[in-house]
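Shape is hard to put into words, and the shape of a protein is harder than most. The fold becomes a row of whole numbers, each drawn from a learned catalogue of backbone shapes. The outcome of that step, for a single protein, is printed below.
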Amino acid sequence: MSEVVVYSTPTCGYCHQVKQYLSQRGVPYREVDVAADRQAASEMVDLSGQRGVPVVVIDGQVVIGFNRPRIDELLSARSARRPQLGVSVADARSMSEKRGEGPTEGVYVGKVTYLSPGDKAGLATGDVIVALAGRAIRNADELESTLATLVPEESVSLVYLRDGERITARVTP
């Protein structure tokens, strides 16, 4: 799973700056206090070859110190890997109008790509997605905007309707 880890100590000024910078950018991270955890300190040295902090690991890439340009580069690459479900969709309202029946809110699933996150979550043609990551999905635009807020490879809840039955699954877009 992809993540951001900050190896730091409580008294390190640059560590505080890195954590503040990530927080301002809305980037979730896991903090590891190497002063309190010898095993974590060894892990940091093994990863970076450095004994000094901060050491930031973004999706497996090591950044030594508060190297803002490198952090920005890695975060930009991360956002370029936009989460996707691997499904073709249409607004449920338009499908309901064409058929004269069915749900009027959500997105109708027209096609599911084999082995895509949607396929692995159990989606099938004809399902209607009504929620993703705890957010109601009323149309295709809302599905796209919700996907854009997700962290790649982070598992989230998916709620869809199949033959009138409400099904909840986990999906990792």
User: Anything to note?
Assistant: The beta strands are 4-8, 30-33, 55-58, 61-64, 87-91, 107-112, 128-132, 135-136, 156-162, 165-171. The chain has a mean pLDDT of 89.
